TrEMBL record:
SMART domains linked to this entry: HTH_XRE
InterPro entries: Cro/C1-type_HTH, Lambda_DNA-bd_dom_sf
Secretion signal span: none
Species annotation: Kribbella jiaozuonensis
PROSITE patterns attached to this UniProt entry: HTH_CROC1 (PS50943)
Region Disordered, annotated ranges: 1-25, 74-97
Domain of life: Bacteria
Compositional bias per record (Basic and acidic residues), positions renumbered to this chain: 81-92
Domain HTH cro/C1-type: start-end pairs: 24-68
Molecular functions per Gene Ontology: DNA binding
The protein's name: Helix-turn-helix domain-containing protein
Length: 379
C-alpha cells in the first residue's frame, strides 16, 4: 500500500507554489500526524498550529525548522517560510494598524520573535516609542500594562532598577482583571534577579496566585520565591501546583508577557535545582533548551546557566562550571545583562570556592563591576 506521502505527491513541488501554512498542513497529513501530535513534538500549542495552517498566523523560522525535523521534510518548510512576502509588505496591507500590535497583542508572531531576538539596549527605545504611540492612539489599558511589563523587565536587565520600579508601578496602574496577577508575578520574578528583599516578593507572588489567573506564571513566581526563602515543604507544594497548572494551561507564542512551554520547563527546572533535585532539574532544563529557538540568544544563555546550576547540584560540578564558563565566554557583550549575571552567580553559590573553574567564573562576572558569589542573604 502506498503511503500518504506518496499519494499526496512530491512535497518538494508544493514548497514552490503554496503558502507556508498550506505546505505545513500537507506535510503533516502526509506524515499521518494530527495537529495535537505535531504540536506535542515541536512544543507549540495545537490551536496555534491550526491558525498557522489556515493562514491566520504567519508562523516563524523556528517553527518551520522544528516541523522539518519532525516531519522529515529536510529544509523544505524552512525554505517555504523564508520565501514568504517581506514583513514590510504584510504590514502595509493595513496602514492604520500600529506597529506594536504584533508585539503586544501578537497578531503577528514574527514580532514576538523580534522581541526575543533583539538585545535589550536596542529593544528599550523601541518599546518606549511604541508605548508613546499606543497612548497617543488611546488604546485600552490592558495593552499599556503588557508593554509596561516588557519595558520594566528590559530596564531590569540593563541594571536600571529605579527606572524599572516606575514602569512596574505603571503596569500595576494599568492592569485590569487577571492582568494584575500577571504584573505581580512578573515583578516578583524580576525582583529575584534584582536581589530585592524576599518577603515583599512573596507578597506579590501570593497576591498573583490568589487572583486565580489561568496563567501558570503566578505559580512559577511563588515557587521560585519560596525556594529562595528556603521554605522547602511549601516550595515542594508550590512546584506540584506549578506542574499541574502548566500541564492544563494553553500556552502559545501569543503574548510576550505570558509564558511559552520552554519557560515553564525552565522555571520547574530551576525550582528543582534549589530543592536539591539536580537530576530532575537537568531533565527539565534540557527540555526547555530543546524548545527554545536557537536565535533567542539571551533566553538560551539563561537556560544554559540554570542547567549549569543543576549539574553542580547533581554532583557534576566540573561539567556545571564548564557550561557556565562557556556561556559567559561565548555570549556577545550586548546580551550580558542582569538576568544572565544573576543566573551565573547562582552557579557560584552551589560550588565550593576552591573548585577549579570557580575563580575564573567569578572573574568573568566581576568584569562588569558587580560583586557576585558572596552568598549574602536577601531575607
Amino acid at each position: 500500500m502506498s503511503s500518504k506521502r506518496e499519494r499526496g505527491g512530491p512535497v518538494t513541488d508544493l514548497s514552490t507554489q503554496t503558502t507556508f501554512g498550506a505546505h505545513l498542513r500537507q506535510s503533516r497529513q502526509a506524515a499521518d500526524l494530527s495537529l495535537r501530535q505535531l504540536a506535542a513534538r515541536v512544543g507549540y500549542d495545537h490551536s496555534y498550529l491550526s491558525q498557522v495552517e489556515r493562514g491566520q498566523r504567519p508562523g516563524s523560522a523556528d517553527l518551520a525548522r522544528l516541523c522539518d525535523r519532525e516531519l522529515g521534510t529536510g529544509d523544505q518548510l524552512t525554505g517555504t517560510f523564508e520565501r514568504r512576502p517581506p514583513r514590510t509588505e504584510r504590514q502595509t496591507a493595513d496602514p492604520s494598524e500600529p506597529a506594536w500590535q504584533g508585539l503586544v497583542a501578537a497578531d503577528q508572531t514574527i514580532a514576538f520573535d523580534d522581541f526575543r531576538s533583539t538585545p535589550p539596549a536596542v529593544l528599550l527605545p523601541e518599546l518606549v516609542s511604541e508605548l508613546q504611540l499606543l497612548q497617543a492612539r488611546g488604546v485600552d489599558a490592558v495593552q499599556v500594562a503588557e508593554l509596561s511589563i516588557l519595558i520594566a523587565e528590559t530596564l531590569t536587565g540593563l541594571g536600571e532598577r529605579r527606572s524599572a520600579r516606575r514602569w512596574w508601578w505603571a503596569a500595576h496602574a494599568s492592569a485590569v482583571g487577571d492582568g494584575e496577577a500577571l504584573v505581580c508575578a512578573r515583578e516578583a520574578i524580576s525582583g529575584l534577579a534584582e536581589r530585592r528583599p524576599l518577603p515583599p516578593l512573596l507578597e506579590l507572588a501570593d497576591k498573583a496566585v490568589a487572583q486565580q489567573s489561568p496563567s501558570a506564571v503566578p505559580h512559577a513566581a511563588r515557587a521560585l520565591v519560596l525556594a529562595e526563602l528556603g521554605r522547602r515543604e511549601e516550595t515542594q507544594q508550590a512546584l506540584q501546583l506549578l506542574v499541574g497548572v502548566g500541564d492544563e494551561t494553553v500556552v502559545t507564542a501569543a503574548r510576550p508577557t505570558d509564558w511559552m512551554p520552554y519557560q515553564l520547563h525552565s522555571a520547574e527546572g530551576r525550582v528543582c535545582a534549589r530543592l536539591g533535585y539536580g537530576v530532575a532539574g537537568c531533565v527539565l532544563l534540557e527540555r526547555a533548551r530543546e524548545l527554545c529557538p536557537e536565535h533567542w540568544i539571551g533566553e538560551r544563555a539563561r537556560i544554559d546557566l540554570a542547567l549549569a546550576e543543576s549539574l553542580a547540584v547533581a554532583g557534576e560540578v566540573p561539567a556545571g562550571l564548564a557550561t557556565a564558563l562557556r556561556v559567559l565566554v561565548e555570549l556577545p557583550d550586548e546580551w550580558r545583562d542582569l538576568w544572565v549575571d544573576d543566573a551565573a552567580d547562582r552557579v557560584l553559590r552551589v560550588v565550593p570556592e576552591s573548585e577549579r573553574g570557580a575563580v575564573e567564573l567569578r572573574r568573568l562576572l566581576t568584569t562588569k563591576g558587580r560583586s557576585v558569589g558572596s552568598g549574602s542573604s536577601w531575607r
